[in-house]
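Re: [ENG-882] Designed sequences occasionally contain unexpected residues at chain ends

Forwarding the minimal case from QA. Structure tokens:
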């Protein structure tokens, strides 16, 4: 699981950073507690937290529960909690459980590039997955740097 910050508004003279928590591979009953602990720690120490779900290949009801707890904690604590990158099975689980409308969604860097509303991943830090989709470079738990930083 990676944690990193990115500017909220790269065109502003100064801006607070958004803390990104990015789980990878599986979010199930075994790994959801780790995600929950990472989100709790992030929300306790940062006013703006985003859970980037782009690298999640399997997402269970335990993951939904963790996201709901994080959203509730943020609301009670006056923080901002958002998600991004939910696709495939993750998006289907959020839709089937009828909770997708409960989360603020922000554009991932890839979505922001398509719409022209934000920065792109630096080409030198991108790789392609087996379907040919560009993803941030990941080496262990490190995440490729976004060129807006």
């Amino acid at each position: 699981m990676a944690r990193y910050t990115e500017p909220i508004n790269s065109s502003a003279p100064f801006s607070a950073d958004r803390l990104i928590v990015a789980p990878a591979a599986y979010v199930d009953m075994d790994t959801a507690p780790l995600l929950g602990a990472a989100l709790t720690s992030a929300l306790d120490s940062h006013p703006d937290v985003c859970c980037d779900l782009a690298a999640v290949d399997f997402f269970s009801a335990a993951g939904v529960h963790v996201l709901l707890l994080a959203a509730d904690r943020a609301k009670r604590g006056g923080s901002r909690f958002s998600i991004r990158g939910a696709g495939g099975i993750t998006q289907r689980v959020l839709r089937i459980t009828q909770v997708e409308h409960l989360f603020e969604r922000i554009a991932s860097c890839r979505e922001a590039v398509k719409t022209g509303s934000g920065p792109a991943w630096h080409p030198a830090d991108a790789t392609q997955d087996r379907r040919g989709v560009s993803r941030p470079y990941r080496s262990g738990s490190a995440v490729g740097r976004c060129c807006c930083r």
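QA comment: On inspection the terminal residues look reasonable. The chain is about 30% helix and 30% strand. Proposing we downgrade this to a documentation issue.
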